[in-house]
Structures are given as structure tokens and as C-alpha cells.
Design goal:
With 232 residues, the chain is mainly alpha-helical. The chain contains 5 helices and 3 strands; from the N terminus they run H-H-H-E-E-H-E-H. The two termini are 52 Å apart. The site of zinc ion has 9 residues, from loops.
Length: 232
């Protein structure tokens, strides 16, 4: 459950790439529109200039002035042609940019659907796990009800230091929490049903318990009284 908020964030994060692609494509179309306007203005300017020179050419007195005007007209017409060529390029680029906007928007919608489905799945899983957790917690409450409060406090304190584990089995004369040797007299006490004392591993501090049976009677008949009594 702890990982779910992070997973939802990660899912959202996946969308930022698709969103950035849409933004980039939209910016490119906006740039294209501005460029087209600029070029339209330029074309008009050069056309106006050419017209002005043409109008003037009827009124010139010298051949030289006429030639100079002709030169200006040719130049202005060449600029018109150049600007129109660039207009065409910009228009083609704009169409491409608009296609990119449509494509990136479609991708974003697809990603959003997938991410929403994933988020829903995570939320459902969260609800399910929360239910399991609540059930486990109330089961735990029920189980520990007979345990005295000071013992619970001790358990909580140790568990906090050991990633939720407060108990360690003593087996083969070893603490299974850390591998340290458990002294025989402690093992003896752990095996004693009448013992109410809590023993903790001297090395790791976990509360020791044992499931070890009382040693089985040896073949020659010697053995503990407890096992002897259950053998028949
Ligand atoms: Zn230990």
C-alpha cells in the first residue's frame, strides 16, 4: 500500500512526455502562423514597391534614370518571388506541424486512457489491500487481547527496531534472529511451560521463544519424564 501513491505519481509522470509533445507541436504551428503573416506583409511591400517604380517609369526623362528604375523593378519582383517561395515552404511546414498537433493529441488521449485504467487498477488494489489490512489488524487485536500491556509495549519497542519483528526462535542452541549461541539454562527456561519470564537474545535483543520438543528418550530408555509419559 505504501508504494501505491508513488505508482500513481509515476503513472501521471508518463503523461508529461505526451503533453510536452502536444505543446511543442502547437508552438510550431503558432510560429508558422506568425511567419506566414510576416511573409505576406513582405510580399505586399515588394509588390507595392514594384508598382510604384513602374508608375514612375512613365515620367522619367533620361535613359539612365529609366534603366535604374527598371533595375529596381526587377529587383523588387525577384524579392516578391523569393518571399512567395518562402511562404510556400512555411505553409508546407505549417501543415506538417498541424499534422503533428493532431497526432500528438491522439497519442495523449490514448496515453490518458491507459493511465486512467492503470490508476483505477491501483486504486482497486488499494481498496482490496486496505480491507485485508483492516481484517488483519482486528484479528491481531483479538489475538493480543490477553497479553498484558507492558509486554505489548516491550514487543512494540523491539519490533520498531527490527523491521516489525520482535521474536526470534531459539533452535539448535542458536538465536535464529542473529545466529548467536543461546545458553543452555536459558533454553531450559524457554522450554518450561511454567516459566513466565521473558528472555531476550543478548546479541540482537529479540524476544526468544522455542518450539523445540523436550529431547526424545534415548534408545536405552533414559529420557525426560515428559516425553516418557507421552510415549505410551
Ligand atoms: Zn539474536
Amino acid at each position: 500500500m505504501d508504494s501505491f501513491p508513488k505508482r500513481i505519481l509515476e503513472a501521471d509522470h508518463k503523461l508529461s512526455g505526451a503533453r510536452a509533445a502536444v505543446t511543442g507541436a502547437k508552438e510550431a504551428t503558432a510560429t508558422g502562423v506568425a511567419e506566414r503573416k510576416k511573409l505576406e506583409f513582405e510580399v505586399q511591400q515588394w509588390k507595392d514597391r514594384a508598382r510604384k517604380y513602374r508608375d514612375q517609369s512613365g515620367a522619367v526623362k533620361t535613359n539612365e534614370a529609366y534603366k535604374a528604375l527598371q533595375h529596381e523593378i526587377t529587383n523588387a519582383e525577384a524579392e516578391v518571388a523569393k518571399a512567395e517561395d518562402r511562404q510556400l515552404e512555411v505553409m508546407m511546414a505549417s501543415e506538417e506541424a498541424e499534422r503533428r498537433v493532431r497526432n500528438t493529441e491522439a497519442n495523449l488521449r490514448e496515453d490518458e486512457q491507459a493511465i486512467n485504467a492503470e490508476k483505477k487498477k491501483i486504486q482497486l488494489l488499494n481498496t482490496e489491500k486496505k480491507k485485508e489490512l483492516d481484517a488483519a489488524l482486528s484479528e491481531r487485536e483479538r489475538v493480543i487481547a490477553p497479553v498484558p500491556q507492558d509486554m505489548r509495549d516491550l514487543y512494540e519497542r523491539i519490533a520498531k527496531r527490527h523491521h516489525g519483528t520482535a521474536l526470534a526462535q531459539a533452535r539448535d542452541e542458536q538465536c535464529r534472529g542473529c545466529g548467536m549461541r543461546v545458553l543452555p539454562h536459558i533454553l531450559q527456561m524457554l522450554r518450561d511451560d511454567a516459566n513466565e519470564e521473558v528472555y531476550r537474545c543478548e546479541s540482537c535483543g529479540l524476544i526468544l521463544y522455542t518450539l523445540e520438543p523436550i529431547p526424545a528418550p534415548s534408545p536405552d530408555g533414559s529420557g525426560s519424564a515428559a516425553s516418557a509419559s507421552t510415549s505410551s
